[in-house]
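Input protein
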Amino acid sequence: MDQFLAFTVVGLSTAAIYAVIGSGLVLTHTTAGVFNFAHGAAGMLAAFAHWQLAVGWGLPVPLALAVVLLVLAPAFGLFVERVLIRPVQALGEAERLVMTVALLTGCIALARWVWDPNTPRPLAPFLADRPAIRLGPAAVTWHQALTVAVALAIAAALWFLLHRTRAGTEMRASVDDRALAGLTGADPLRAGRLAWVLGIQLAAVGGILIAPTVALDAQQLSLLIVSAYTAAVFGRLRSLPLTFLGAVVVGLLEAYLAGYLPQNDYLPGLRLAAPALLLVLALLAFPHRRLRGRDRTLVRVPLPTVRGSAIFAGCVLVFALVLVTVLTEDAVISYGTIFSLGVVALSYVPLAGYAGQISLCQLSIAGIGAVVWGHLGAHGELWALPVAVLLAAAVGALIALPALRLSGIYLALGTAAFAVVLDRWIFTLPAFDVLGVRITLFDQGSVSVTGPDLFGLHLTSPAQLLLLAAVCLALASLGVAALRRGRFGRRLIALRDSEAAYATLGGRLLATKAAVFALSAGIAGLGGALYGMQLQTVTAEQFNLIAGLPVFLVAVIGGLGTVGAGLFTGIAFVVPAQLLDGLGTWAHDLTALLVALAGMGLAHSPSGVLTRLRAEWAPLARDRTPLPALLGVLAVCWLLAALGAADGRLLLAAAVGAALVLRARATARQQPPADVPLEWWGVRRPWRPEDGEVLTRATAAR
């Protein structure tokens, strides 16, 4: 009984923190319509700032708390609302999701850049010098008592704010109908601004309160938000009392699992993954119209031609040949993951780009492909590669089962929870037997991965593995392009446009979702196997949720609807990191920060950067004079670099400069006259895709 009371006290104190953080989530979601994935990261930054002021610089604790909670947290909330969220407020749910995911990635990278993760930063509990309070056989520390008192005070203050003040009335009115609230004299912008300030302050309070009980680590503190996610979903993202109840359930569950879970090698990870498992169950058990709603901006998905797809696949292979001929062996090892990560990123195109299904666990599924190939293909058995793809596809089909009930941000929450379950539990399991079959994953360590045997040749060198990955990326890109042109691709586009209309017209939602999830997971599994071959040794940490978020962001920046997103992601993810690697270990965090900043800047452009680049370079591709000249310049630079006759960076700069000059010339040559009458479009100047809408409007006006 004494142990039960002790665990209950710990669980309630932890639940109080989850309640504070979860109430901030509910506040921002109900008022601004944004589910903030970076909510925990805001609390993490507040905890680091509190440590810096109170411990690093020696300021008095009350002063440090005042600076963090009354100055830094409100300023950060105002910055997020005004600079990041308001520009994408009128866009779809997917764009707001990308913005908050980018903010999460950026906050973690910034914290790791400023505060060295290898340096321990202990933070003492509040009032640690006072003796514990005795409640019968249980002892309650002053920090625990303070945590519960703060949570109760915040609950009372929020109730008073929402039900007894004009600002709270404006916030509740903005939830129901922002436009109608504006007509009645309320100010939705002011309500949203206040909600973001209060939400970030609540996250800061939770982060500071929980920091003394865990390691002050950027990634760990940011992922503690999963428990607060669960509490918020218990409240259906709108009810603060139910959110507090959900926090109590989560806190007590964690405490009781820590105290009473049997001690063996298979269950410790279950305790860590319990909040994520509970989140999935909560998403499925609490049906609500918000859980099935969609709010997004549809963008046109390009239809790749056969000729264009073949040219792109050829460019992938040529690019791979250039790399293996001009780079040293060490450089080939460093840049070789361009194509394998490109295959992983390509898996987003049919799933998110075509079908509109958001998934944040693609890199975790790639880890399944890597570990299956590592064990079954330990001696290069080629048959193990399709087996790895099929097993990854089976996991994807399994994820599709709850996807039928969820969409949008809630599907993203479910897939993120699935990634956390894999990270914290499944990937940490030792070897076990199922029906007499020995199953081994990472076995609490690393897995050695080798290349395959292909036509009697064992591929082991970095150059061979790079070419293999390039061939797989080219073939996978051709397959995804053919999918878009085929009947199944049209079905996916229809599913993305309207699930209700698709089902009404006879479409089979479950079968289609299961098929596209399985296809996407199979592609990710292939990419994971190739990625493992090039790394030669893989660990579970390389495939966790935080590691996968930058890959997702770069794919979004490129454009999830374009087949070239795979190659673009590989280049944009690997090349800057390698170029900055010589600056020090902190350069990796700088690269992640740059990716996050790019994601924040391009979240308001749903079509992605590749569509824009294609439009800008199209005149050069159509011009028969500058294009051969450019190909000649590139061939000469390639030859000089392969022979070592000139510095590679100088040749790269020369090639880029020549390309820009020739593109400008081709654009000027094809620039149509500005005064061409509407009737002569397509005759005196080339026809453009956007001319059809203009012509239709002009005809209707007449």
